[in-house]
Every structure is written in structure tokens, then in C-alpha cells.
Amino acid sequence: QVQLVESGGGLVQAGGSLRLSCAASGRSFSGNAMGWFRQAPGKEREFVTTINWSGSSTNYADSVKGRFTISRDNAKNTVYLQMNSLKPEDTAVYYCAARISRIATTLLYEYDYWGQGTQVTVSS
């Protein structure tokens, strides 16, 4: 069992930045691939970014490439999502997810544990 708790969401102006954190507890964190997903109002949950167990491999959705950066600190059992140049289209609930695998996947249904989400709202 892995518990994930997201934090760092909030309201920002377009063009601003925000850093989300996901603190993990329970099962060993270092052996898990991690991902961030988001769900905007009226839309299905979608892939944002993933990172493998060591942080050596990452993937980003086209919509966030060049603006978002995922990173992890295994010593702190935490994964981060740095979001820059935020757009109103980025408004969503952001979810942290963990997969019982060292290899990341962009498919949300292949993740085993999910946080409760943190709201990110980007105003025009």
C-alpha cells in the first residue's frame, strides 16, 4: 500500500508558475514509477507527465512540453511538478499516481495508487 498526498495547487494568473508536490508513504518509493495526471472540468483524466524509478526517463504530454518539469527526490519520497508559463487550459485537478514498477507508463489505468488531487486554477 502506498499513500500519496498532493500539495501546492492554487490560483495563479496566466503566465505564472506553480510547483506541485506529491509525498509518498508506505511502500518503498524509490522502486515506483510516478506520474502526474489531470482532469479539467467536463473532461476525462489525462496524462501529463511521468518519470521512471530513478528519474532518468521522463515523458510529457505535448500540451505541456517545454513548460512543465517532473522530478523526484527519492530520499524525500517526493515527486514534483514544476509548472511554468501556465495557461487557462491548464486548469484542472492534478493527481499524483504511483505504479508498482520501475518503468513508467502514460496509461492511467496502469497506475496502482492515486492521490486525492490538488486543484490548479489559472485565470486569464
Protein model, in words:
It is built from no helices and eleven strands. The protein is mostly beta strands and 124 residues long. The strands form two sheets. Strands 2, 4, 5, 6, 9, 10 and 11 form a seven-stranded mixed β-sheet that branches. A four-stranded antiparallel β-sheet has the order 1-3-8-7, with no helix packed on it. A hairpin with a 6-residue loop joins strand 5 (46-51) and strand 6. The chain is globular.
Features:
single chain; 124 residues; mainly beta
Summarize the entry for a quick read:
The chain has strands spanning 2-7, 10-13, 18-26, 33-39, 46-51, 58-60, 68-73, 78-83, 92-99, 113-114, 118-123.
Strand content of the residues, in percent?
over 45%
Percent helix: under 10%
**What general outline do the C-alpha atoms trace?**
globular
Give the number of DSSP strands: 11
What is the CA-atom radius of gyration, in angstroms? 13 Å
Mean of the pLDDT scores? 94
The largest pleated sheet is described as: 7 strands, mixed
Element order, helices and strands? EEEEEEEEEEE
Number of contiguous helices: 0
Distance N terminus to C terminus? 40 Å
Residue stretches low in confidence (pLDDT < 50, at least 5 long) are none
Output the structural class. Answer: mainly beta
